[in-house]
Amino acid sequence: MSWGFLRDLLSGVNKYSTGIGRIWVAVVFIFRLLVYIAAAENIWKYEHDEFECNIKQPGCENVCFDHFFPVSHIRLWALQLIMVSTPSLLVVFHVAYRQNREKHHNQKLYKSPREIDDGLLCTYLISLILKTGLEIVFLVLFYKLYNGFKVPRLVKCDIRPCPNTVDCYISKPTEKMIFLCFLVATSCLCIVLNLSELSYLLFK
């Protein structure tokens, strides 16, 4: 998947952001997007092939993997990155609307194309609230789906067609745990930055 569109989107919104907003863009681009592409994606690339159970019963390994990993970590992270960046489109659309109005009226309606007036400020605040809400939703989703932010070395499975309780082993659990903690921490940092920027704009 090409992440160029996400980079261009964040860069386009960056010029309308406050200093805190620019830090958020840097965190998303460097500590989340680049880490995801360069490292995290490869760690979970063959997670199903490297998931092993101590039984050869047909279908047992598949149902156990599906039970403990209902959604792939890496696909959920990709969805999270896309969803938390999507509210920034509101700002892009608002600016495009302003420019279209000026073109339609054939006159300058705004003092500066980069100036944040009341309408653009309202749109920007809504995008911040949506980004913060989506970050929290995905953190809760991660926590609920995987019973906490942890990657166990061994899981016990007794789901049919497994004939009894079998031991299943997850590959590279320590490495996966480190990246899981890192990505959760950066997500929490983004929430703090969004709330800080929201507070700054409201009380400015």
From TrEMBL:
Question: Where's the Connexin N-terminal domain?
Answer: 42-75
According to the record, the segments passing through the membrane are: 21-39, 77-97, 118-143, 177-203
Major localisation: other
State the superkingdom.
Answer: Eukaryota
UniProt xrefs under InterPro entries: Connexin, Connexin_CCC, Connexin_CS, Connexin_N, Connexin_N_sf
Keywords from the named record: Cell junction, Cell membrane, Gap junction, Membrane, Transmembrane, Transmembrane helix
Q: Which GO terms describe its cellular component?
A: connexin complex
* One BP annotation, GO: cell-cell signaling
User: Mind listing the GO molecular function terms for this protein?
Assistant: gap junction channel activity
Q: How does it sit in the membrane?
A: Multi-pass membrane protein
Reply yes or no: does the keyword DNA repair apply.
no
Annotated localization: Cell junction, Gap junction; Cell membrane
- Entries under Pfam families matching the protein: Connexin
Known Gene3D superfamilies for this protein? Gap junction channel protein cysteine-rich domain
Q: Per the database record, which ranges form the Connexin cysteine-rich domain?
A: 134-201
Instruction: Answer yes or no on keyword Transmembrane helix.
Output: yes
Q: How does it assemble?
A: A connexon is composed of a hexamer of connexins.
Q: What does this protein do?
A: One gap junction consists of a cluster of closely packed pairs of transmembrane channels, the connexons, through which materials of low MW diffuse from one cell to a neighboring cell.
Q: Which family does it belong to?
A: Belongs to the connexin family.
Query: What PANTHER family does the database record attribute to this sequence?
Result: CONNEXIN (PTHR11984), GAP JUNCTION BETA-7 PROTEIN (PTHR11984:SF26)
Report what the protein is called: Gap junction protein
**What organism is the protein native to?**
Cathartes aura (Turkey vulture)
